[in-house]
Design brief:
228 residues; two-stranded antiparallel sheet; 9 strands
Length: 228
C-alpha cells in the first residue's frame, strides 16, 4: 500500500494490499418497513453497487456482512466483487456486524462502512488508508462537532477481544470499548478536504432520509460512472 503521510495532500491509492473492507448489511430496518437497505435504489443503482464502485478498486478482500443471505441471492449469482459472510451472533447490532467483519477479514486491518451510506467518498477512504499505521487499533473520522464516525473507520484485529467482552455483557454500543484500545482520529483538515460536506456519513434510516438521498443523487455522479 503506497502511503503519503503529508497532511497537505490526499493521496490516491489504487489497491490496499494489507487492508480488507467490509460492508455491514444492517439490522431490521423497522423504520423502512424491513427493507434490505444495501439493496435500496439510489440514483439508478443500489446502495450496495455504489459502495462496491468505491471499494472494489481499492481492496483485494471485500466482505458483505449479512444477517440473512437470501435477499442477496440474485446479486451473489452475478459474480460480485464481495464475498458474503453471515453474522456469527444472533443479535442485530452494528457491533455484532463489526465483530463478524474483523473476524472474517483476511488482513490485520479492515475498513468498515455502513451498508446504507450511498455516498461514501473515495477520497475519504484513500485518506484513511494513507494515514493508517500498523499500531492503530481504530482510525476514524472526527467531525467538526466532535462526533466520531465508527462506521466509516479502519479496525485492527486487536479489537476483537474487547468487542467480545462487550457482546458477552449484552452491550452493543460500538464506542464502549474505545477507551481500551489505541484510537486515532483522522485530522479534521484532511476530512474536510476529502469530504467537505461530509456526505459520506449520510445514510438511510427513515423514509425521509431515503428520499433526501435520492434527491442528492440526482446531482451526484455515481462513483462507477466515467466522466466525459
Amino acid at each position: 500500500m503506497r502511503q503519503d503521510r503529508s497532511s497537505s495532500n490526499i493521496p490516491t491509492i489504487t489497491k490496499a494490499a494489507n487492508v480488507s473492507a467490509a460492508i455491514l448489511g444492517g439490522g431490521a430496518a423497522t423504520r423502512l418497513s424491513g427493507a434490505v437497505k444495501p439493496l435500496l435504489e439510489v440514483g439508478g443503482a443500489s446502495i450496495l453497487e455504489r459502495l462496491c464502485a468505491t471499494l472494489a478498486p481499492r481492496f483485494d478482500d471485500l466482505l458483505l456482512v449479512v444477517k440473512e443471505p437470501e435477499p442477496y441471492a440474485r446479486a451473489a449469482a452475478q459474480n460480485p466483487p464481495w464475498r458474503m459472510v453471515r453474522d456469527r451472533l444472533p443479535s442485530r447490532s452494528s457491533l455484532t456486524g463489526l465483530h463478524t467483519a474483523i473476524a472474517a477479514a483476511r488482513h490485520e486491518h479492515v475498513f468498515v462502512t455502513a451498508g446504507d451510506s450511498p455516498f461514501l467518498r473515495p477520497e475519504l477512504v484513500d485518506a484513511l488508508l494513507a494515514l493508517l499505521r500498523p499500531e492503530d487499533d481504530v482510525l476514524l473520522p472526527r467531525k467538526p462537532d466532535g462526533y466520531i464516525e465508527p462506521l466509516c473507520a479502519v479496525y485492527s484485529r486487536r479489537c476483537l477481544p474487547h468487542i467480545e467482552v462487550r457482546l458477552a455483557r449484552g452491550e452493543y454500543k460500538i464506542g464502549d470499548f474505545f477507551d481500551k484500545i489505541h484510537l486515532r482520529p483522522l485530522p479534521l483538515e484532511i476530512l474536510l478536504r476529502a469530504d467537505p460536506e461530509q456526505i459520506s456519513f449520510r445514510n438511510a434510516n427513515t423514509p425521509e432520509e431515503l428520499r433526501a438521498l435520492r434527491e442528492i443523487a440526482r446531482g451526484t455522479r455515481h462513483p462507477g460512472q466515467e466522466t466525459t
